[in-house]
Amino acid sequence: MRWWRRAGLWKALGIAGFLGVAATGAVVVRSERRRRAYTPEEIRSRLHERLDQAAGDRAAGDGS
Q1: The whole model's pTM is what?
Q2: Per-residue DSSP letters for the chain?
Q3: CA-CA 20 to 30 A from 52: which of 2, 4, 24, 30?
């Protein structure tokens, strides 16, 4: 009688693992979809903003 309980535990763990992998895949797909929603001009402008911010942070760090 105990063997079916152990089998049930492994079955539950397997299902939980499968659901975890599926959820992770859904998150990856969602982030990829958001990333691809930007136009090349938007990406370029965001990269320039980040570069300017990093240059400003670096210049602020040199003074101390």
Answers
A1: 0.45
A2: -HHHHHHHHHHHHHHHHHHHHHHHHHHHHHHHHHHHTS-HHHHHHHHHHHHHHHHHHHHHHHT-
A3: 30
